[in-house]
Amino acid sequence: GEYMGSGEEGRRTIAVHCRGGKGRSGSLCCAWLLYSKECKTADEALAKFALSRTESRMVGNLQGVETPSQKRYIYQVEQLLLKQNLYWGDGPLSLPKAKKMKLNTLHLDKLFSDPTGVAKLGPIVCTISIDGSMIFTSEPVLHEVLTNKITFRLNGTEVSGDVQVSVYIKDRMKIERVAKSGKEKGILFTFFFHSAFTSKGELAMKTKMIDKAVKNKKIKGTNMKRPYRMDGGLRLLFD
Questions:
Q1: Which ranges of the chain have pLDDT less than 50?
Q2: What residues contact 105, with CB distance under 8 A and at least 6 apart?
């Protein structure tokens, strides 16, 4: 903020980029649009970035923030700013307190369009990661996949701050040295959340807010072209 306001007439430029220039970069830009009051809401910031990021001569979808977890964090920035009522020039913003949580179970409800096809791939497992490091892997689940009502027991795994929860095909799973956030081998889907923005012992989301599942692309090595149901979802229960 000090840099941006110290140039001629209080205007300076910062170049922001990542691999594709729209996910991580877009998240940062949307946060700045909210903090600087260029936009009043997260939806407005997301739309403004997408329109600015997309070349006018391009045909097709807008090139904005697409990953559900990144959108989730932008909405949380909006909550934080509204709660503290502090914006650029008002004074220091307090970071959210990373409260400790104990994760108990992850429930998948009608998430797969072809549960039998998924079951043929073998057992699936749930993992928990913090700062890119995997700290827990559940017991494999197979028979429940056929019912499309799946429960992973997370054994009260203690977490705080930024948390990643993922579900893998066990036999295809490979631990990567560097986190790829949804592109790891054998991964079915993943999602991120910050413990400061959780309440009531449950985090629930529909398929459209689950990373990788929302794109509904074919699972490698199968004939399932659209493996996820958009009316399905999950619930993470915690203390």
A1: none
A2: 151, 152, 153, 154, 236, 237
Which of 73, 21, 113, 111 is closest to 195 using CA atoms?
73
Beta carbons of 25 and 18 less than 8 angstroms apart? yes
Q: How far is CA 23 from the centre of its chain?
A: 11
Per-residue model confidence (pLDDT) at position 8: 61
Return the closest-CA partner of residue 81 out of 129, 30, 26, 11: 30
pLDDT digits (tens, 9 = 90+) for 95-105: 888 999 999 99
| 107 backbone dihedrals φ, ψ, rounded to 5° | -110, 130
Written as one string, the DSSP assignment of the chain is: -HHHHSSGGG--------SSSSSHHHHHHHHHHHHTTS-SSHHHHHHHHHHHHS-TT--SS--S---HHHHHHHHHHHHHHHHHT--TTS-PPPPPP--EEEEEEEEEES-BS-HHHHHTT--EEEEEEETTEEEEEPPPB-HHHHHTEEEEEEEEEEEESEEEEEEEEGGG----SS--SS-STTEEEEEEEEGGG--TTEEEEEGGGSBTGGGTPPPTTSS-SS-B-TT-EEEEEE-
Q: Which amino acid is at 160?
A: S
pLDDT tens track for 115-137: 999 999 999 999 999 988 999 99
Which pair of structure tokens corresponds to residue 207?
Answer: 């398929």
Structure tokens at 88: 């650029």
User: Which residues, including other chains, have CB under 8 Å from residue 104's CB and lie 6 or more apart?
Assistant: 153, 154, 155, 156, 237, 238, 239
Chain centroid to CA 199:
17
